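Why DUF112 domain-containing protein? Reviewers of the renewal asked for a concrete example.
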Amino acid sequence: MEAFTSLAGGLAVAIQPMNLLFALIGVLLGTAVGVLPGIGPALTVALLLPITFKLDPAGSIIMFAGIYYGGMYGGSTTAILINTPGESASMATALEGNLMAKAGRGGPALATSAIGSFVAGTIATLGLTLLAPYLVEVAVSFGPEDYFALMCVAFVTVSATFGDSPVRGLTSLFIGLLLGLVGIDILSGQSRLSFGIPELYDNVEVTTLAVGLFAVGEALYVASRRHIHEEKLEAVRGSLWMTKEDWKRSWKPWLRGTLFGFPIGALPAGGAEIPTFLSYATEKRLTKYPQDFGHGAIEGVAGPEAANNASAAGTLVPLLTLGLPTSATAAMMLAGFQQYGLNPGPLLFAEQPALVWGLIASLFIANTMLLVLNLPLVGLWVKLLAIPQPWLYAGILVFATMGTIAANPSPVELIMLTGFGVLGFLMRRFDFPIAPVVVGLILGPIAESQLRRALSISLGDPMVLLQSPISATLLGIAVIALILPFVLKGMGRFKAVED
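Here is what the prediction returned.
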């Protein structure tokens, strides 16, 4: 009951005119960038970080959350109409959605996607409302050694989740941890890895790193590629409305997709890709119309899209209660919090209840906005696909540069932006995940601080990390998560040799 009282207070914050405007801007921007292939919500939040640092924190973070939800929905439009997911989480939607569009049923495919997103997002946000206070109560009892162990779990799971190779993921993480060491050491007052450059004494700016890796790196990568085949846009033919049969075949997949998306999204190693494919496989197994799969089954769109949007709310559970990002966009939102001197976690609920509950309440509003806006504006989103890529990415480069100059007017910041952009391009070129670098930069100094606190309290005894049951359990999970991918890969090779 206390959670609903807090939510009511948050609703009073969320319905303030400026916050409603921020939510509207967020869902519109999010949907637009979700529709454009190759530009996801993480890149958009990264671009907006430098220009929002003087805005109201609550409004900016509400806008970032709207971008997240809108991006998750917008990715389904390109998945359905041109078989090109705007987000990796929309890959499962493309399997049946594009076949429906080719069969002249693009309208019902987009409709079940929009309504499923609304249903799943609303239920999952309700789950966030109910679950968050309990996780906060648990997290308040954590000591410094427990927090360090939790960070270790986050490092390992994030490195293993993003990308296809755990080694590449860990390499990306260590780049981020190395960058996190740059600057003045809080305890000793000595400069580290700053090479006598005054601008580096205040640490590497998260916004500069994020914009360089995501925006500049993506623009360079797209410019380096040539189109292998021309993307064919399927026109939206016929009515957008779903028939009675479509509703009958969609409502159960919406609910099942929510049950997959929210809990998996809330796990430290969650993400949206796993629940969407699990939902697709489940619907294929349970359907009464198996002949439709592979020819445009509406269940194959409804379930994955519900799982996709439910996972977006799920990722906010560890982000808000523990300060752990489990997706690239969540990492960008964490950077947004830190931009205003806010650290997500149990103390945030105590120190900034209006902001946290205002953000949660705004998710209900953003969901409703997405449903009301997206179906009538399908034609507009389709027209965005006609923007030539050179114009699009040239604009992103200009926007990224101007935003960085506005936030930190220094030649050193521009040099770092360029360097991080080249690093982002090389990482994409050789298939290294980007998100662990940002996570390492943000969480690395926090993990170091908690480790040093724990060792100071124990007078330098490292066994303090194993004496706490919570810490010992979390470190055990981290070790298993680190070793398991290599064991599974070794077993796969052994079986391949046997066969």
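Strands lie at 183-184, 191-192. This is the kind of structural detail the renewal will allow us to pursue systematically.
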